[in-house]
C-alpha cells in the first residue's frame, strides 16, 4: 500500500507539474512565458547589458573587451525563434497524450471508469517524458547561458545522461537504505 501511494503521489506531481510548465494562461509562469519574454526583450541580451553583468564597476578586467566582442548578440527575435520551433512538438505531444491524463485522472476527476483511465496511459512513455524534461532543461540552460555569458544558443548539444544516471543512482541508494 505504501508503494502504491508513493507511486500515485509521484505521478500526480509529474502530471500537475508538466501541466503548469506547458500552461498557456497569460498569468502563469511557464516555459512559453520564458520564451516569449526572451524574444520580446532582446535588450537583455545586448552587448551593453552583458557588459554590465560581467563588469559591475571598478577597474576594467583585461579580458573584458575581447569577451564582449566575441559574445553572441541576437540581431532580432528571428535569431531566437528556433526556441518556439523546437518547443512546439513537445507541447503538441504533451497536449495530445499527457494533458488528458492530467485533466481526466488527476485534476478534475472526470473519469470514474478505471479501465477507461488506464487506456489513457497507453500512449505514454517514460523515455518520452524524460526526453521532454531533458529538452526543457536544455532550453532553460541555453537561455541562461545566452543571458549570463553571451553564448550562442545551441539546443540539443547537452547530454543529460550523466545527470540522469546520477539521479537514478541517488534514488536507488535511498530505496536500498529503506530495506
Number of strands: 0
**Mean pLDDT level:** 91
The number of helical segments is 8
Shape category: elongated
For the record, give the distance between the C-alpha atoms at the N and C termini, rounded to a whole number. 16 Å
Class from helix and strand fractions: mainly alpha
Segments where pLDDT lies below 50 for 5+ residues? none
Q: Quaternary status of these chains?
A: single chain
Strand content: under 5%
In total, how many domains does the architecture comprise?
A: 1
Largest sheet: none
Helix content: 55-70%
What pattern of helices and strands is seen along the backbone? HHHHHHHH
Radius of gyration: 21 Å
Please outline what is shown here.
The chain is mainly alpha-helical and 179 residues long. The chain is built from 8 helices and no strands.
Characterise this structure.
With 179 residues, this protein is an all-alpha fold. It has one domain. 66% of the residues lie in helices and 0% in strands. The chain has 8 helices and no strands. The chain has helices spanning 2-21, 31-40, 47-54, 64-70, 82-107, 114-120, 126-149, 161-177. Helix 1 crosses helix 5 (82-107). The chain is elongated. The chain starts with a helix and ends with a helix. The model has no long low-confidence stretch (mean pLDDT 91).
Amino acid at each position: 500500500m505504501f508503494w502504491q501511494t508513493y507511486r500515485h503521489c509521484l505521478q500526480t506531481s509529474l502530471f500537475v507539474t508538466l501541466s503548469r510548465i506547458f500552461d498557456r494562461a497569460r498569468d502563469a509562469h511557464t516555459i512559453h512565458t520564458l520564451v516569449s519574454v526572451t524574444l520580446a526583450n532582446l535588450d537583455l541580451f545586448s552587448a551593453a547589458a552583458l557588459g554590465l553583468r560581467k563588469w559591475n564597476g571598478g577597474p576594467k578586467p583585461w579580458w573584458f573587451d575581447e569577451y564582449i566582442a566575441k559574445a553572441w548578440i541576437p540581431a532580432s527575435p528571428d535569431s531566437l525563434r528556433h526556441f518556439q520551433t523546437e518547443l512546439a512538438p513537445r507541447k503538441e505531444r504533451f497536449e495530445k497524450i499527457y494533458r488528458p491524463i492530467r485533466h481526466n485522472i488527476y485534476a478534475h476527476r472526470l473519469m470514474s471508469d478505471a479501465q477507461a483511465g488506464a487506456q489513457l496511459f497507453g500512449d505514454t512513455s517514460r523515455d518520452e517524458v524524460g526526453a521532454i524534461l531533458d529538452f526543457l532543461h536544455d532550453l532553460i540552460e541555453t537561455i541562461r547561458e545566452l543571458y549570463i555569458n553571451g553564448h550562442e544558443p545551441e539546443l540539443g548539444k547537452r547530454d543529460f545522461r550523466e545527470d540522469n544516471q546520477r539521479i537514478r543512482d541517488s534514488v536507488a541508494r535511498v530505496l536500498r537504505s529503506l530495506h
